[in-house]
Amino acid sequence: MDIDGGGEVAEVSDRQVEVRFVTKLKAPYKVQQTSISIPANFTRFGLSALVNKLLRAANEDWESEPFDFLIDGELVRMSLIEFLLAKGISAEKVLEIEYIKAVTPRKEEEPSLHDDWVSAVDGSSDGYILTGCYDGFGRIWKAAGVCTHVLDGHSGPVISVCNLMPKADSFADQVVATASKDRTLRLWKFGGEEPTGQPKNIRSFKILRGHTGAVQSIAAIPSGDMVCSGSWDCTINLWNTSASDTDDSVAVKKRKKGGQNEETQSEGEASTTLVGHTQCVSSVVWPQRETIYSASWDHSIRRWDVETGKDSFNMSCSKVISCLDIGGESSALIAGGGSDPVLRIWDPRKPGSLSPIFQFSSHSSWISSCKWHDKSWFHLASASFDGKVMLWDLRTAWPLSVIDTHKDKVLCADWWKGDSVISGGADSKLCISSGISVL
């Protein structure tokens, strides 16, 4: 069977290759697995048009959508003939090409406006988005433009936020944490009330004091009963999050408003302090109970043993590291970005080498955030001061998609609901890009 390339290129190459399309996608995404002859200068766009044509031939109601293509486990980002030559693959045999849904947003939601820079986002709960803002407030969003709660209490910009109970069955007593330039962390509870038109102001139930510098990053242990925080004072503090703890509660206060006592606020002290970094601790991640990862402006990434308080892994980088995340294969890869435009991936399991196993350099400015997709070994998102969010797949050196909805520096990004990317920036907007087919 011969396929005419049509408008794929200005001049159709005489060279043809025999290909067979395969997929792990379910019906109605499957085409017949017969070999066909196509021009060797087809790129992914021509391949995508061809697969859609084959699917429409089997189903006249088929609506076209973009696909990506893998040959020997690597994404195709050049013409077929260039790919085959680069990889030393023979064009004389039938070439098996796997097609997958393209990882790109299908929809951009209306931005959710804040009163200042949106400096932090957490999308780990499917039920809501948590944001932190330079106006000193945290906010809970049920959907784009629907703010249900305002977290009121910090006296400085909120720089980092995290959800302590992202997988809870009930939204009845959600607990979240915020960290601020005011040198404190605060813990908050809220319920799953339906939006009433006006967001509900709530106060924190616990204030965590102890840092002597602005708190730059926080992360919760998977069980949610502790958080850790990294600060400009160069330390990492560990805190208990229970409202009823007595071992670290140093004061209990009742604030009066209108003659009525408000909810009790306890103040907590750090249970442990990890010392070793020599400059600002810019990012912390707590993926397992016994292990914390941290990144710093001192150009190092460290892995800490929680029980001993010692760093069991200390890796030097050539640049300031501003963001860090753990994920990918076996949840073991380290992604980091910082003061240059390069997103780096390390594998600490590889002995004898601390060099990055991947380096992605399509951004043009400081990288402010990087987040692995929690269900994929290959996919992650990055945000940058260049105003862009990029989606990556370890199987290609080029971004899968570039999201440019922000009009200023992007300060934070995360995944939400598995198929959306949320981001906040210096344009005071929370943006939601949805319909992303990662799995």
From TrEMBL:
**Where along the sequence do coiled-coil regions lie?**
none
- What InterPro entries is this protein classified in? NLE, WD40/YVTN_repeat-like_dom_sf, WD40_PAC1, WD40_repeat_CS, WD40_repeat_dom_sf, WD40_rpt, WDR12/Ytm1
Domain of life, per the record?
Eukaryota
Write one Gene Ontology MF term: ribonucleoprotein complex binding
A GO CC term attached to the entry: nucleolus
Q: Which segments carry the WD repeats?
A: 208-249, 274-314, 360-402
Question: Which biological process annotations from GO are given for this protein?
Answer: maturation of 5.8S rRNA from tricistronic rRNA transcript (SSU-rRNA, 5.8S rRNA, LSU-rRNA); maturation of LSU-rRNA from tricistronic rRNA transcript (SSU-rRNA, 5.8S rRNA, LSU-rRNA)
Q: Which CDD domains match?
A: WD40
Which residue stretches does the UniProt record annotate as biased composition, category Polar residues? Answer: 261-272
Q: Where are the stretches annotated Disordered?
A: 247-272
UniProt keyword annotations, A-Z: Nucleus, Repeat, Ribosome biogenesis, rRNA processing, WD repeat
Q: A Pfam family this protein belongs to?
A: WD40
**Where does this chain mainly localize?**
nucleus
Q: Does the keyword Acetylation belong to this entry?
A: no
List the HAMAP family.
WDR12
As for what it does, the entry says: Required for maturation of ribosomal RNAs and formation of the large ribosomal subunit.
UniProt-recorded name of the protein: Ribosome biogenesis protein WDR12 homolog
Q: Which organism is it from?
A: Perilla frutescens var. hirtella (Perilla citriodora)
